[in-house]
Amino acid sequence: MGRYRGPIVKIARRLGVNVAETEKVQKFLDRRPYAPGQHGQKRKGRPSDYSVRLREKQKLRFIYDVSETQFRNLFQEASKREGVTGTVFLQLLESRLDNVVFRIGIASTRRQARQFVRHGHVLVNGKRVTIPGYRVRQGDELKVSEKAKKIEFITHNIERFKGRKTFPWLEFNADTMSGRFLRVPEREMLSLPVNEQLVIEFYSR
């Protein structure tokens, strides 16, 4: 679980963004900071407005690693809510269970986080939740199930990420393998290399 295959690296190189938000993919980008293929290093003409918006949409979708249908549905939900649509959209994506499991360090990638959730390795408020897109809410407690605490992938991830940066809207205790979703993050807390306004314009065209 959690190993990188060709596609995710190619996507990252094509978009010029570390969509996996991992050190391994960043190393690939540092070595080859251009699009894949024999024409990847050639300079292209000015992109159209549509392609610029599409690129931003793809960047955001691949960062959170969700299907086009899931992505569009979340956008439609965000557009109907009060507040700034772009910020609300990011908050909905950030509140997905698979994303939170990745953020707190139980999983090394969002894809691996989805596997852990589907296999029932994560409890939310003491109950097993097997839906990766489950909406985590303020105050919810996440915990690795007792059986899963012996899984090498999980123990390795938690040990490895002990010293990494934390996120102010999350807390995690490596000793108890439990954490909490403290609050929905504000836009300035999210260091995402994406202009969400362009994503809104893409869907509003």
Characterization of the model:
- With 205 residues, the protein is α+β, with helices and mostly antiparallel strands.
- The protein folds into 2 domains: 6-82 and 192-204, Ribosomal Protein S4 Delta 41, Chain A, domain 1 (Orthogonal Bundle), CATH 1.10.1050.10; 96-181, Structural Genomics Hypothetical 15.5 Kd Protein In mrcA-pckA Intergenic Region, Chain A (Roll), CATH 3.10.290.
- It is built from 9 helices and 5 strands.
- A 5-stranded antiparallel beta sheet has the order 2-1-3-5-4, covered by helices on one side.
- β4 and β5 (178-181) form a beta hairpin.
- α4 (68-80) crosses α5, α5 (85-94) packs across α9 (196-204) and α6 crosses α7 (110-118).
Radius of gyration: 18 Å
Number of helices: 9
> What fraction of residues sit in β-strands?
5-15%
Largest sheet at a glance?
5 strands, antiparallel
Helix content: 40-55%
Named at the architecture level, the CATH assignment of the largest domain is Orthogonal Bundle
The average pLDDT is 87
CATH superfamily of the largest domain: Ribosomal protein S4/S9, N-terminal domain
The computed structural class is: alpha+beta
Q: Give the oligomeric state.
A: single chain
Unreliable stretches covering 5 or more consecutive residues: 1-5
Q: What is the CATH fold-level name of the largest domain?
A: Ribosomal Protein S4 Delta 41, Chain A, domain 1
How far apart lie the N and C ends? 39 Å
Strand line-up across the major sheet: 2-1-3-5-4
Tertiary shape: globular
SSE arrangement, N to C? HHHHHHHEEEHEEH
Number of strands: 5
- Reading off the top of the CATH hierarchy, the class of the largest domain is best stated as Mainly Alpha
| Domain tally | 2
